[in-house]
Amino acid sequence: MRNAGKKVTNRVNRPCVVIPVYKTSISDDELLSLNLCKKILGHYTVILAAPEGMSVEAYLTFWPELKIERFKASYFKNTKAYSKMLLSAGFYGRFLEYDYMLIYQGDALVFKDELQYWCDQNYTYIGSPWIDAHWIQLYKDYHLGFIEKRINRVGNGGLSLRRVKTFYKACKWLWPIASLFWKEEDVFWSNVAYFLYPGFRIPDFNTALKFSFELQPRKAFDLNNQQIPFGCHAWEKYDRVFWEDILKKNEVLTFK
């Protein structure tokens, strides 16, 4: 497995934050996610990726400065359709005026204003490491260890940074493969595009831990020298108690 080292340039990379939404109402957990995004990343351009025809009034009431990009409603029906959208050149083509996009799903949290820092590391794609992921373990269970050993374990897409122009070009170049891919889009980017598209740069495991946690957050916290990352994904699904404690200790938000 190849893991590209850091390459920092003097050029300022321009980011945007893209929040995919598919519901007209906002839950308490989603409101926490939006609140942190507004508080910490609100000085960047923040864009809702929403279905055509869906009301976004609740989001604009909370955050009037949000920009809106509309996509086919069919892309938001399920995970498979959403993955298809994030494997399409048409999606990234909407954001070509930016160098990077941060995909910030409704179950993501951000803790530090480090977006520009991560953009300036000039990776193509960054997502949290998959720690003890079930889908990776299955390869061992089915005696396919030779595949398991080659899997890149960095790249969860729920909170992920993507170089827009490279993703746009890679979607076109790899479409014959992407159109047949059966798993989630983040697995494609981290384990197909990474190996096939020239210059597709992803950080190593330890660097990615500084960017985000998802699976096994307590273990990730220890592996990261008990430092919180830039953000996390699926916090309410994977050890909510741990994250509530982190939020309280760091005075990010006070829980009721």
UniProtKB/TrEMBL annotation:
It holds the Pfam family DUF5672. Residues 66-233 form the DUF5672 domain. This is DUF5672 domain-containing protein. It comes from Solitalea longa. The lineage of its organism: Bacteria, Pseudomonadati, Bacteroidota, Sphingobacteriia, Sphingobacteriales.
